[in-house]
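Appendix B, Record 12. Input sequence as logged:
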Amino acid sequence: MVSVAHWSSVVGRVSFVNCDPLFHGLSERWSILPAPPAWLTGHLLRQDCLVAPIPTADFAKHHSKLQLLPDVGIASDGKVGSVLLFSERELSDIRDVAMPTDSSTSRKLLLYLLAESGHAPESVEMGPDLDEMLQRCDAALLIGDRAIDEAARRPELVKLDLGEEWKRITGYPMVFGVFAATLEAPPEELGRVHSDLLSQLERFEQDEEWRATVVASTAARSEFNVGRVEIYFREVRNRLDDECRKGLEKFLVEVCGMNGEINWFR
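Logged structural output:
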């Protein structure tokens, strides 16, 4: 564990483009700790950072130790574009699925969605390389920038957008990631980072010139074209409204089996 003075000024972020609207131009008072989603959970619990967007399923597992920042997260209201199942087979013919190790939420969500459709394939954990995954298994789950890239290269292999399917089955948005902090986190610093993140989000939503700047920056660093980034930033959302909260609660209870209330930072 690092010193209080240090960890309370560190903000974790997912090393995908889905958080760029919140982090592009964030105040320099914050040091940024980029990592894959599942790694951020460990960083948060070890107090390597003040707050981080962690997989929703990880919050369910550790909810007694954590609190959530309201209003911000990683969600979709239908298609998400970056949490996708790839296969050359139809869903009914899939016998096993290669699962990446970098997001517990997507793995749980996929198994739930397939079970709702009457399918129960075997899960095999693998690294997120689509070619290797499909050589070993009938289907492969990819998330984040890799999913966007592979969908652009091989759209015929995309069999399921998990955000879209969750919306179809439940009627609610899907919250893939939540901004969490430990219960011991200093409330003054949490208030500051929450305010800064909300300011970033409001600027992205309301200032068209700033939005174009963020989109251009994301396109340049990710090598996705500007048009795809524009579409993606309409698919993924960083604002959690009341409907997102309902979807979050449904996922936590029905998919993760969480018992207990969500501790919301106030």
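The chain has two domains: 4-76+173-255, 83-170.
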